[in-house]
Amino acid sequence: MNNYTKFRPKWFVPHCQCSLCADSVSLNQLLCGPCLEDMRRVQPGCAVCADALDGISGTEMVCGRCQQHRPSFDETYAAFVYQPPMTRLLWQFKFRARFDIGNFFCHQMVRDLVPKDRPDYLISVPMHTTAIKERGYNQSAYLANLLARELKRPVYHDVYERNTTKTPQHQLNLKHRKRNLQDAFILAKPRAGKHVAIVDDVITTGATMEVLAAPLKAFGVERISVWAVCRTYRE
Length: 235
Description:
This protein has one domain (5-231): Rossmann fold (3-Layer(aba) Sandwich). It is 32% helix and 16% strand. The chain contains eight helices and seven strands; from the N terminus they run H-H-E-H-H-E-H-H-E-E-H-E-E-H-E. Strands 1-7-6-2-3 form a five-stranded parallel beta sheet. The chain has a two-stranded antiparallel ribbon with strand order 4-5. Strand 6, helix 8 and strand 7 form a beta-alpha-beta unit. The longest helix is centred in the middle third of the chain and has 15 residues, at 99-113. The chain starts with 32 loop residues before the first helix and ends with a strand.
């Protein structure tokens, strides 16, 4: 039994209800058809951060923010836009240990990632040990494990260590997010590789990814991809 399945709640049983609206569905089907259609998928936008481009899209286009301050990561992929009802589904995955939802997310991501260039290895966004004890598991590590298995690539969870416990990023604006991340991560065991993918559940401002990507680039990694379940579109 791995480190993630052991945290499966005792009440977890195969379900026949939609995880959002509770309508009847086939055995182990996560969502009904209408709820699945309500999940807004990310459309092609900025080639670097995946943000929307004011109605203009294209795989080689870069938004104004990334042109002005080029991130250390090179590209971003996210499956869904972070808005209801996705917010409810993601909350169940993160805070109610709904691993079936995590499996659904992985399936949706792999569908789009398989045709792309595969990285040399994957890493997840680390959580502090205190936070892992409180929640029971690291949702980013769970996703990275699933993606690595499906893509047949190694995954390493010891490349970075979480140095401090600070205010959760989702409670802060961009300015305070950057300040909150100062000295938050330690590059503990960097590994050689030309292309690395960093896996997380939600991309908001990209501040966390920048903090993780910059030291890897300095170490010699040539290309860094950011993979996430959801992307928040900036105003």
